[in-house]
Amino acid sequence: MPKGIYQIPYPDNEPINSYEPGSPELKSLLAKYDEMYNQSPIDVPMYIGGKEVRTNNKMPMSPPHDHAKVLGHFNYGDASHVQDAIDAALKAKKDWSDLPWEHRASIFIKAADLLAGPFRDKMNAATMLAQSKNVFQSEIDAACELIDFLKFNVHYMQEIYSTQPDSQDGVWNRLEYRPLEGFVFAISPFNFTAIAANLPASAAMMGNTVVWKPAESQMYSAQVIMELFKEAGLPDGVINMVTVDGPVAGDVVFKHKDFAGLHFTGSTGVFQHLWKEIGNNIGNYRSYPRIVGETGGKDFIMVHPSARPKQVSTAISRGAFEFQGQKCSAASRAYIPASMWEEVKGYVIEDVKSFKMGSPADTSNFITAVIDKRAFDKIAGYLDFIKEQKDAEIIVGGNYDDSKGYFIEPTVVVTSNPHFRTMEEEIFGPVMTVYVYEDDMFLETMQILNETSPYALTGSILSQDRYAIDLACKTLQDTAGNFYINDKPTGAVVNQQPFGGARGSGTNDKAGSQWNLIRWVSPRTIKETFVTPTNYRYPFLG
Ligand code: NAD
Global pTM? Predict the structure, then answer.
């Protein structure tokens, strides 16, 4: 047991490499990208109890911007592998949860330092190849955000452990932050390497063991995450990675009596389905499972007539189109006053026409490909639908081409209908829909915004008028878990803007904060009495 009240090294946000043309860090990253692109096809295993598990069912992995290229395969498992992963997690549980917390802390701080150093290029290049992120989008996700998650979560763990109750004379009260009884199931989305690693790591850090199912389209970078944890000294069986069909995994996990918690990030529909599955099995569990889910968004930019047009257009260009709009926080609807629209429209069209689109290996490309054929077809379907409607018009973009990669032109739509389909539904692609309102309808337009979609993830107000900002803060109180004033609604930074939404957007347990970590423990209150009573009679009995 620890023989000291240790203080972990105080964390700071990881500085972001700018990757300017000609810089040594860009040369080094592109060399790693080339090396990984050209290496012999790799064979990504499952990791169960520290063993690499392979099957005969090999699934190809290709870069979304270059789908004819096969980078390698991953091994597709079945229900038996899920059962093996649960067994491995339960077997590893006692040793892991008994390990003094400072050793758990060390492993994850070490993982962060390895990622900041020797693993940085590899994790970034894998993310460029697997998810088609440009160098900057990879850097802020796979390197910086993940380093921040790992370091700050260790800091929050220490804060949680230090949060202790009051004790009166003769008594010492303590809170012991036990891990959950059983195992945690982490299911991650394709779009952030940092989220993929953080979902299993945050629960593991608090002493839990985990079965992790990454998204199939993120397997190439998922493997690098497992290599990183292994190198940092994470013991076998603490995080077990399985690559199986979601419903197959769910069928085994949600029927298991030791299922103790779900850490999910992905779409709202899938999360609601999983919650129902858990509900259907609620009588079978040892404990009530923790259910944490961060899900979809229909994120907005609300513009007051006092806003600066160039600031509005830049918020749209960056907020809607970086990483092809495949961020849960990406702006996808904007409400713009009529007096400003012509000017904003001109700037936005100019910006969008200046975007270059192509492979992330060419760093002059701002836009790369969307994740896969399914996403491409879905987004293309929306564009075809818009083209046929009378109450909406595409003012820039609208084309798509999947001959080499899954490329969709960044698209801006203007609608006269504030309830137009693309004002309400999450598309998860580079499509921004604008509703132009009469200047004197600012409040009424915000009321429409508030009632327009089931989501409440991110949103922003742009205004130079402080009364308008205050009105927006009040009127839009429940429309966003992350609300931005005079900024785009994307780019949350760990320890600066804890992230999560409400309504249909999730349980709002704020990734990158102690509110998330607290979900992975079940506190035990211990009261110790120093002079124990020996007579039952209270004074009032005389
Ligand atoms: P998705 O819902 O399609 O998949 C997420 C994960 O769930 C994947 O691993 C998938 O294989 C798995 N899955 C799907 N069906 C399943 C089932 N029946 N049982 C078990 N697992 C199942 O989402 P995606 O396309 O990977 O990611 C995009 C979505 O994620 C968007 O809706 C986006 O808004 C959301 N997202 C939200 C946040 C947030 O913090 N709120 C962050 C990132 C992404």
Answer: 0.97
Lining residues, ligand 1, CB within 6 Å: 187-192, 195, 213, 215, 246-247, 249-250, 265-267, 270, 273-274, 294-297, 328, 426, 428, 457, 499, 501, 505-506
| Parts of the chain with a pLDDT under 70 | 1
3-state secondary structure of 371: coil
Burial of residue 196 (number of CB atoms within 10 Å: 0-12, 13-18, 19+):
buried
Summarised one tens digit per residue, pLDDT across range 305-334 is 999 999 999 999 999 999 999 999 999 999
Q: Is 521 helix (H, G, I), strand (E, B) or coil?
A: strand
Work out the number of other CB atoms within 10 angstroms of the CB of residue 50: 15
What the chain holds in terms of domains, given with CATH numbers, is: 24-60+69-295+506-526 (3.40.605.10), 299-485 (3.40.309.10)
* CA quadruple 364, 367, 370, 376: dihedral, nearest 10: -120
* Distance, CA of 326 to CA of 132 (rounded, Å): 11
Q: pLDDT for 114-155, tens place per residue?
A: 999 999 999 999 999 999 999 999 999 999 999 999 999 999
Query: How far does residue 218's CA lie from ligand 1's centre (Å)?
Result: 12
- Is 451 among the catalytic positions? no
DSSP string, 403-464: SSS-EE--EEEEES-TT-HHHHS---SSEEEEEEE-GGGHHHHHHHHHHH-SEESEEEEE-S
Which residue, among 77, 75, 78, 70, has the nearest Cα to 43 in the 3D structure? Answer: 75
- As beta bridge partners, residue 61 has 72
Confirm if 304 and 394 have CB atoms less than 8 A apart. Answer: no
Question: Is 322 annotated in the active site?
Answer: no
Angle formed by the axes of helices 338-354 and 309-321, to 10°? 50
Distance CA 502, CA 24 (A): 42
Counting from 1 in the atom list of ligand 1, the atom nearest the Cα of 213 is: 9
Residue 381, classified by CB atoms within 10 Å of its CB into exposed (0-12), middle (13-18) or buried (19+), is exposed
> Of the residues 14, 144, 328, 409, which is catalytic?
328
